[in-house]
Amino acid sequence: MYGRIGGWCVAMVLATLAVVLPARAELTVGRDYEPIVPAQATDNPAKIEVLEFFSYGCPHCSDFHPLVSKWSAALPSDVVFKRVPVTFGRPQWTSLARLYYALEASGDLARLDGAVFNALHQAGSKLYDDKTIIEWVSAQGVDAKKFTDAYNSFGVVSKVKRAEQMVQSYKIRGVPALTVDGKYLVIGKETKGLGDLTALTDQVINKARSERGKK
Questions:
Q1: What is the pLDDT of residues 66-86, one digit of tens each?
Q2: Domains of the chain
């Protein structure tokens, strides 16, 4: 896993971000994935649900964002992709999780999603408190009142709490992390880069699809 609770986003040597994981004849528990016990219910049982657990504050999540965005846009129709911002109990990351859900609520997420990563990890902006976040969002052309109302809303606060519960239920130890169908956490202990993680997830998706077909 690329970031851990103790270090929030511990640096990991990445050989390359472009290497494609070679096809494996058989997935191996403990090397490629871990079962999620107990399995978690998904929002739509008709779809194979893939979750990305991430934080805007994690540099590896920033590196992963363009890769997972391109990959998720090309997923087959029987797969649904969703994102879950983690906090790991860290106040700064809690603010960033609220930022994510507030942008989603205001309709500005698609436009500013990548910009948040860039502000934090390229421009060095300290988007870790309410005032700074609201000022930055306003500077991006977002209606300040509309965003602030969403940021402080019961709905956004509830979603952050729900995300924290999901981190516990899915046993997420670091980010970025991908889970499949509420049953598998992709770990990829032998992957050589973040690009490998999506290729391995494709294989776990195929496993979940095969298991559904046998029912």
A1: 999 999 999 999 999 999 999
A2: 33-213 (3.40.30.10)
Which residues, 6+ apart, have CB-to-CB distance to 19 below 8 Å?
Answer: 192, 193, 195, 196
Nearest to 196 by CA among 14, 6, 58, 59: 14
**Three-state DSSP state, 94:** helix
Angle at 147 between CA 143 and CA 151, to 5 degrees: 170
Contact 205, 79 (CB under 8 A): yes
User: Nearest to residue 100, comparing CAs of 61, 70, 47?
Assistant: 61
The predicted pLDDT at position 113 comes to 98
**Beta carbons within 10 angstroms of residue 106's beta carbon:** 18
For the chain, strand residue ranges (E) read 33-35, 48-54, 79-85, 177-180, 184-186
- Whole-number CA gyration radius for the chain: 17
Contact between residue 3 and residue 88 where contact means Cβ atoms under 8 Å apart: no
Q: Is the pLDDT of residue 19 over 90?
A: no
Instruction: Note whether 185 and 167 are within 8 A (CB).
Output: no
Q: What residues contact residue 151 under an 8 Å CB cut-off, 6+ apart?
A: 98, 99, 102, 130, 133, 134
